Structures are given as structure tokens and as C-alpha cells.
Amino acid sequence: MSYVITIDGPAGAGKSSVAKRVAKSLGIKYLDTGAIYRAIALLLAKSEIKPESEDFLREALSEIKIELRENSVLVNGFDVSGEIRTPEVDELASVYSALPVVREALLGLQQDQEKYGSIVAEGRDVGSVVFPDAKVKFFLTASPEARAKRRYLERVNKGKEANYDEILESIKHRDKNDSQRELAPLSVPEGAIYLDTSDITEDEAVTFIIHHVNEAINNHNEAK
Ligand code: DC
């Protein structure tokens, strides 16, 4: 039986690290939908296609080829995995992902991933729009300050430059964009299990999620 687990939530709530570990522990695939939005935003910006040029956007989107590999995203054959993790792309992705034309173009690609087996999908609307029939849905969040601190430490540990106040500002700005956009705004999907990670460790979040997934799988098996 293949199944989908969704993890939605704002930037920096720890979704990615938690989702990756949950997928590994369950022996299923991890789908990072944010990476798809990032890759598309980077390519559109590089091609100088403005967010307001709907016709150009539609044409460009119909020609872009995205490939999802285990740990990388390829756009038109080029691996952009490193390039999409910058503060500039944080902002670009937030802007382009608010556009209906972009979201429509990427919906099928995300849904198709279910054909290849069970997945843990992570994003902003994976439980509400992309996989509304997911087996178990989670919503991970944390205070803006806790999230900014994590992003700050992540960058510092990678030897990159970081400024806590700028990161906090960017997180607040993206929260606003992501939750106030008209189409598929960031929201708690119906039936999702809510987890605030501000004061818990990553291990605790992973254990919590796996516990609920196993419970859902056991209930399903017992009901058969
Ligand atoms: O999770 P992330 O920071 O890598 O996401 C990058 C951007 O993409 C973020 O601004 C929100 C957007 N996004 C989205 O709109 N829908 C998703 N399912 C995933 C990400």
C-alpha cells in the first residue's frame, strides 16, 4: 500500500530536516516542493521574466523541464540545488510562488510523484491542495524568533555570512507573503496534526511524527 504524508508550515519551522529524517526512517521518498518553487523562480528571474508578465510566464513555464532526483533538482538539465539556497532566491521564490500561473503549472508535477511510491511531501499547501487525501497531515510551526535563530545557526555552521536581524525580517516578510496570497495561502490543512517546534528538539519532532504515522498505518491495517 503506498501512502502520502504531508508536512506544511512556515519557513524555518524545521520541516525540511524533520521531513527528510521521517522519510528515511519510514524508508519512503522525500518530496521538497519548496525546492521546485525555488528552481522555477530562479530560472524565471534569470530569464528576466517579470512576475506581472503573465503571457511570457505561461510560455516559459510550458518549456521548462524540471527533474527531481534523490538529493537534487535539475532545471533544463542543470543541477541548481546549491544555487537555490540563497537569501535572494528565498525572496524570489516567495514572489513567484504567489502567482496562480506558476502554481497551476507545478501542481501536476508534484502530484505525479505519488505514482512512484509512498512519499513524505513538505511545503505550504501539500496537505490542503496538492495531496488533500494524504494519509496523515502535519502542520509544523514555531515562533518567528525561534525560526530566525535556526536559520542563522544553519548559515553560520555552513561557514556562510549571517545577520540575525535580517533573517528575522525576511522570515516575517515571507510569512506575510505566503499567508496573505490569494491562491493556496499557507494555512493549517483540515485534519492536520499541529506541532509547535519552538521549544522541542528535532529528535522529538521526528519521534512525534513517526508515532502518529505508525498509529495511522496500524489503524488502517486493523480496519481491514
Ligand atoms: O520551503 P521553502 O522555503 O524552500 O519554500 C520556498 C518558497 O516557495 C516559499 O516562499 C513558499 C513557496 N512554497 C509554496 O508556495 N508552496 C509550497 N508547497 C512550497 C513552497
Helix content: 40-55%
Q: Which ligands accompany this protein?
A: 2'-deoxycytidine-5'-monophosphate
Q: List low-confidence stretches.
A: none
- Rg calc: 17 Å
Largest sheet: 5 strands, parallel
Taken in chain order, the helices and strands follow as: EHEHHEEEHHEHEHHEH
Number of strands: 8
**Sheet with most strands: strand arrangement:** 2-6-1-7-8
Class by SSE composition: alpha/beta
Total helical elements: 9
Distance between the termini: 12 Å
Strand content: 5-15%
- What is the arithmetic mean of pLDDT? 93
Shape: globular
Describe the overall structure.
Helices cover 52% and strands 14% of the residues. It has nine helices and eight strands. It has a five-stranded parallel β-sheet. Helix 1 crosses helix 9, helix 2 (33-46) packs across helix 4 and helix 4 packs parallel to helix 8 (164-180). The chain is globular and about 55 Å long. The two termini are 12 Å apart. 36% of the residues are buried. The mean pLDDT is 93. Bound molecules: 2'-deoxycytidine-5'-monophosphate. 2'-deoxycytidine-5'-monophosphate binds at residues 11, 33-34, 37-38, 93-94, 97, 123-126, 174, 178. The site of 2'-deoxycytidine-5'-monophosphate has 14 residues, from helix 2, helix 4 and helix 8.
